[in-house]
Protein 1
Amino acid sequence: MLTYVLRRFLVAIPTLWGVATVVFIMARLLPGDPARVIAGVLATQGDVDRIRRQMGLDQPLPVQYLDFLGSLLRLDLGRSAHTNAPVLEEIGSRLPYTIELAFVALVVAVVIGILAGVTAAVRRNSKTDLIISSLSVFGISMPVYWLGLMLIIVFAVGLHALPAAGADQPTSIVLPALTLALFSVGLIARMTRSSMLEVLGQDYIRTARAMGLGSGSVIFRHALRNALLPIITVIGLQVGSLLGGAVLTETIFAWPGVGRLLIDSIFFRDYPVVQGLVLMFGATFILVNLLVDLLYAYVDPRIRYS
Amino acid sequence: MRTKLLALAVVGGLALAACGNGTTGTPTGGSKQGDTLRIAIGVDPDTMDPMRQTTTTIQNIVQMVVETMVKIDTSGKVQPALATAWQTSSDGLTWTFTLRSGVKFSDGQPFNAAAVKANFDRVLDPASTCPLCGPMRGVKSVDVVDDTHVKLNLAKPIAPMLGLLTEVTFGIVAPASIQKGGSTYSDQEKPIGTGPYTLAERVKGDHVTLQRHDGYWGTKPNYKSQKFLIVPEAASREALVRAGQADVILLPPVSDLPALQRDSTVKVLLAPGDRTIFMAFNTQDSQQTLLQKPEVRQALNYAINKDQIIKSVLFGAASPMDAPMASTLFGYCKVGSYPYDVSKAKSMLQAAGASNLTINLVSPQGRYIQDFQAAQVIANDLTAVGVKVNGPRTMDWPSYLGTINVAPAKASVDMHLLGWAPGYLDASQAMVQFQSTQWPPAGLATSYYQNPEVDQLLAKANSESDQSQRATDYCTASKQIWKDAPWLFLWVQRFPIVYSSKVTGVQSIPNESFYTMYASPA
């Protein structure tokens, strides 16, 4: 098991190197002169050139690339071209907000999604099933920005019940977390429903019922446990999409997380921050994938890694 | 050397209000005291360093903390601030400023000539990052005459000196905090100034809070603190003010302006601005040589129904241009109009042999009020007079700048939409758009306009120390530029501010700045 985990970490290194290279190239393929964007349209050519030198952008690309990899090995992501603060500090000050938002959204999505999915599967073809299935499709198809604005209009402008934007009140997280969770709720509910239906049709469930086990025990101990594998896969994938979805949600709700930082940095052609963030997203994906694989073994004892 | 006294006097024809009592902050709101004024803005500050900051809205916040030598009032006129009087030598090579006495920085240090010198030395240090310092680099050295007098020695005259000094770039921060060699010399994240507020807290991406400076020398503000909420999405800002969770917001979605104007819980201020929106022609166009002819460009100016676009696309958030610069600038004079006239446009195009004109056109999206939407209507209006239009095409801002900010030989589009807001309210800052020395990559004169007569007039006006002569020169140049039509002259953008009707005294300065210094509860 330990060797397996270690091997996975070693494999992650070339993957991250690939991510770093791709993002390095992509950032530089974007049209537009970062020095000009940073200096502003009113700056003189001399000031633009000075900024270009300070950013090291007057160097040939291979030199920039080697510099970039060299500092990466020293775990130095450089300084933001836009704010002049170290990239790690920029990301570090924003990351807790995104983690908080994604975590709350994930918990909401998992709890509501699984409960709704199980309910729909157990009451198959009933009105409840129809309502849950329709709401799931609604959740999956609603664009985040539309849904977010609707929630703001209803709960902040109309009912004066919740903050519309910002992150400085305890209730500030409610609307962004709900908005962010809804897509995942729909997906998890649908996956749970179909996975449960498959399991509920199995012989051992009929046997369990025949043995006189209570329906709660049958559903949660026997059926859900065996239906979990595909659900966990979906949840694992959702962690990635929650981080991605956070970009839009954070913009609408003025939530000061890394998603907004990424958008701002792309607009300012702030290469060091864009590179740092994409690397961080890449590392998160690799880590979550590993965790999901390890969870498989926990949920299904037949799966063993060596 | 004969020295001409300009103390508290005429800044290029704009008479200053007599100002004997030493206080220039004009309280504009009521006198009720308030706790916190919450203002939602769209941009996240990159830096709070006055020297490094280039975004108007953030400069606006910094300006409440760090004061400048002179300032612009709500009508756009230059007023004394930390300097109470100034003299310039007849050759324009030295400026002597009399400083306000009894002023202290919020950390208790006195404001004096040494402080001014320390700040100028810092911003003009070639090692410093000061994107907006370019025009000030003509200052050779700064001398402390005595505690309350400071002298700027110039290599060449800088005619718009006072306008330049209104920029927070040249604001005065406490000298102890910018000692050379110290970590805050190159980057000030918590500047200490003499202003009515101090910077209390900043959470990146979320908010900036200012706290009232009780030792302020001038009229003290009514709100104990002003909190700037950073909300990038316009619709979310609108929701905040409607929900009563913000007191003031900048730039609501313009399409909601009519609804906001009907809403009795909020007030809408369509503040006069200084940003001209235009379509620059490529006047050196080698692909579409017809655009090199002024008659063709004039004809196209007649083809656009500006009033209608302002009304139905911009929801009133602009006024038509009547000169190549905004009326809020020193050196502006009204020069004319190109009234909407389809048949005139058509016949002029025919006479110029341009009845089969094909043009490709680009516009940014979301940079200026309804920019891309307006570009679509403009393309339509051009089609109506027989022009074949390819576009409008759009792209993100850095790519856009990369496309239009190129030397003439590399130009790939015939017309592009652009907005130009001068750094400070002086014609010299608008006219860089029409100087052939400012063609990209040296500057951003993206229409590649060249008229030797205009070049000569502008060069003269930019270093002329007789301010009324300067104004005359800019006016003459404006008339010629209007006739040569290097732009499709569109409109001067207004700056929409929405505030709760529970607040009073929310004002603006005509350079896209809000002025909430003396707001108060209604």
Protein 2
Amino acid sequence: MRRIWAVARNTIRQALRMKVAAAFIVLLLILLPILVLTITGDGTLKGRLQTFVSYGISLTSLLLSFLTIIVSIYTITSDIEHRQIYTVITKPNRRSHLNLGKLLGVVTLDVALLTLFAGIIYGAAVLMPRFVKASPQELEEIDRQFYTARTSLVPPEIDVREEVEALYQKLEKNDQLQQVYPNYPKPEILKQLTNQKRLEKRAAPVGQRLLWEFKNVRPLDANQSLFIRFKYDVSVTPPDEQVYGDWYIGDLRQLGTGPETATPVFRATRKDAARKFQEIEVPGSAVTADGYLAVGFINPPLNETVVIFPLEDGLEVLYKADTFTGNFIRAAILILLRLIFLACLGSLAGSFLSFPVAILFCLVIFLTGTVSGFVMESFGLLSQNIGVIYTYTVKGLVQLLPQFDKHNPTTFLVPARLISWAYVGKVALFMVGLRAFVLLVFALIIFSFRELARVIV
Amino acid sequence: MESYAVETIGLTKVFSDWWGRTKVYAVDDLNLQIRHNEVFGLLGPNGSGKTTTLKMLLGLLHPTKGHALLLGGDGTNPKINARIGFLPEESYLYRFLNARETLDFYGRLFGLTREVRQMRIEALLEMVGLKAVASRPVGTYSKGMARRIGLAQALINDPDLLILDEPTTGLDPIGTRQIKDLVLKLAERGKTILLCSHLLADVEDVCHRIAILYGGKVQAQGRVKDLLQQTDKRQIMTDAVSDDAVERIKSILRDEGVKFEVSSPMERLETFFIHTVAEAQQQAKPTSGAVSTTQIGDFLTAGAQKGSVLDKLVGAPDAEPATAAPQTENVAETEVPKRGADKNLLRELTKSAPASTEQTARTEAPRTEPVETKGQADSRQVQKKVLDDLLERPTTQERDRQGERKEGDPGHA
């Protein structure tokens, strides 16, 4: 271990004396304060904080990702190119020790830099309200909706398989399949029909209502508020883009039992902008002792349009489950997991490719990983006619993609959504324990068996 | 214990092109055996396969065929690596580290404790003359200085086997001399040294045995003396003698019917240079480069008892700076016994000296060697005796006897 650490120390020194590393560090040290001073968001304090944290975390994550890729590749390829490896590898170290030492050095550097920059962002986010003019209401709002970590409950999926099958049969019987879905394979048609049916279940025509029921709602404190976070979509956009809604929140099963209810039921009539996230705050007492909560929505006639709640993020219930600090630390850990993956990827690329080729290779993987959802969906669509080949070749490789977009910490921090330790553990397991580990094993194998010198005759 | 310090069995390296087609044999069926405590020279012109051989020995290249063993094991085995010091053909060091950090890094790679590291780093910096510039990044060093720090890193683990690839490249004559002295001293301490070079003088001065490579194959191999000694010629070296004595010797040689030449020896430029710089150093002239020292790291001589005869012998530079040391110690080692015999012969020859006016034949350019006083020669004989005992080589007396037997051979004039 001492020898691995010796290599790691040297790698850190090497990285710090690289001009590109210094440039990235200086860039972040300049950009973060500029962000603090210039960002205004939507004009509110909450918007400003959300935008700053979003930009700050994204910028730090992006630049540290680039830095990790560059350093992890350079430290190996440079040693081979400039032949320092001759004097290092001929010492009593296995090649794997050298590789692991380099990796440890890069990760240690990442931890140090991430701690520094995350600390700056955290400090700025916490101190910002002191230097901004804000009303007490605004301060209270950010306290409840930003400086917190709220767990999220989304409505359970409704089983629509029977309805979808019936609809498919009907279309087939009426010879409408080719008209509606020309040249579509059956699985794709079924998938589209399923989405269509699910969306129907989340659409409220004028005068109609929707009801969602949640179980196991366990707020950290019964006196804390709950938040119904929603986003309207509409079939016809109103002239002022405003949508009316009547909301009923609580144990709605009591409504038929008389005026006295065991737990309060709250009603809110609102007008909100379409296609933007909104939140309704409700006292925690709306939840029953056994953790039941129902949310009802009525589309009033004023709207003159069907109101739809999108499938992915149309509606969720948020309530405080942890502190902002704890959530921020876990967000930083998510970034670190991404950096560890990239360090292993760089280690692999550097073990058999030259510096520029390895950089290109890693950047392609990195950028693909940041849009992994789109890539996986695209591959899925394109490969429908070559299903078997795809399953046994490309699919495996696509599954190895890191899915950075899926685990983006800003999507949690901005809406103050909880990043649970279980979630962090799951990401660590799949991104580092599985994907990065596979890359590292390949890197060690390749590096152990390759020739490190060239024949010169 | 392993039978050889270095052994290659049918070692072959084929350089192929991108398509896998054989392009050239870099090393071809190389069989080497290097014994322990031996200084072995691997010679050859550029591209002869010397460095490729070393790279295969150390596991940096995979042999196409054959095996290479270092200290009885594989060159990639950490246990074997722990006993090896390696100086590549150029000092491939981390440019951003300074000399002290460089040695500390390599010391850590050997798992040395902090105390041992610090002690050795200071000793080595002193030894290679870089203590004054130890805090400068090695990227700012001259080639010679980089070579010195490269040598220091190769010695940080007090290796049993030292592999030096072109160790004197880029070094000034003093540095070259120091490295040669160091190699000799390490050899005296029981180290095995594999020296790879195309600078023939370096190899000739320090190596016990050599192999000459060409085209990846061994063209000649054996003891330096056996390969270089011209048994059909004799050389007599004396103090200044009178013209009359010279004429009498010439007369005798003419009577013998052999070709001969008489000349005064010239000092070698290397010796002259070393003397000149040593004088400048004594006057404490400032320099931003490496400082020549005569010390050898204590830890490298840890096996010897302080104050032993051997210590005094290898510590000789304490009294006489290495920079001004006699040029060809090992040549002196072989010449000393003959010199005694030759002086007797001279006396014999000059007893009766008939005048002669015959011209001497000059068939080749004069080969010159430094003239040594009798006192120096005697001292060397004492040193040689101790070294011979240690290395279990035939003593000078035994060689004298052999020499005397050869003197009786009428074929030697």
